[in-house]
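Fold these two proteins, one after the other.
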Amino acid sequence: MASSKPPSLRGRRDFLEQAAWLSMAVATGVSLGGPSASAAAAPIKRAGGAHLKTALNAYSFADLLTANLKDRSKGLDLFRLCDYCAEQGFEAVDLTGYFFPGYPGVPEDSYVYALKRHAFDRGLAISGTGVRNDFTSADKAVRSDGVQRVKAWIEVAARLGAPVVRVFVDSQPPFKSWREASQGAPRESVEGWVADAVRECAEHGQAFGVIAGVQNHGDFVTTGAEHLRLLERVNHAWCGAIVDTGKYISADPYDDIAFMAPHAVNWQVKESPFGRPDPPRTDMKKLVAIIRRSGYRGYVPIETLAMGRKDYDPYAEAARMLVDFREAVAATA
């Protein structure tokens, strides 16, 4: 089992060697373990070489989408977001659950199927969706509520044709950290709560053909080592990693990204690897090269964030990031 300590504490050389071995195993099909190897923690077996497809995460337009839910004359809705994606040439859209009418309740089938058809008519796949949940809370009722919400939206994802639902493994408001949410419980105990909840979601996902994607979010999971350790503990084939490129809190997030790339079932590509509005911006060529080396085939959603910027324009920022990503894909081909 991988160490729960951040890479900087267990030796950069050992960390890089393990990351290189994982990448080599993906490329060559070498098994990383016998019967004791975790179903969720083994690198995903891929074929055909890397193939990266563009997607946009709806959360990039969070303010406008939220405004529209409150007043239909303002902002934009998910249908118009699909139009924007088609106009820009994205291949898919990630339709975050928060922006569906009635969330956290599930939308009417008529709405789901109308949106699915709207995306299809614009040549867009639906690459995923996601909800809010808190599995680090000491309150079992809060964790149970999160499990039921994820399960309900797994079924929505199945109706949408989305292959992945994002599952948070970090604390949510009103808590400021997992330590506060857990009321100071030991990390090992909290990891057990999270793993049990995610495993139950993955079981439900298997029944509906939808993967439970575990996303790092800079709180309970801050490094690649912590991310992989949690997957090992979940130990379910219908659970994988969503690699958020802006939410590994370490000296060099690219190391963590490379470490987890062989386990990725989806991505969130941010403006900065350090999750902030100021430089340095994400080195797209470096990032795309890492993704390619893992052999990943699938959607790579871009997610831009306002991050307190008064001049933030999601239309312009998403378009800029798409151009950068396409140029990096071409340059690394």
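Now the second one:
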Amino acid sequence: MVTDPIADMLNRLRNATARQFSTTQVPTSRFKEAVAELLVRQGWLEKYELIKPGDKPAYLLLTLKYYEGQPIMRGVTRISKSGQRIYMNQAKLAKHLSNKSETVVVSTSKGLMSGTEARAAQLGGEVLFKIW
């Protein structure tokens, strides 16, 4: 049993990147699928697929992105945790967007967005993690 499924997903991505695997598998949920879609849209992952084997549970197959043999994703940090939720409004979120080579993922009332998308939409929310 996993107590924090998003942290588990991020750890699987971090471990696969460290070992330079081309893909990794993650147990599926709609929220994880939304996170994978956002990471593909932001250019951190090549693609993702929802795999539904016959009698086994479904999973997401995440394809990692590399440039000249080096992983695009250098690191990932979980910000909002199950023990301490971190919320930021638009003004606080702007302070964390100074670095162009990283993406802050925010859960807003309009769904998952990157920090720049949330700021453009003038939304705040729970800051889930930062990827660089």
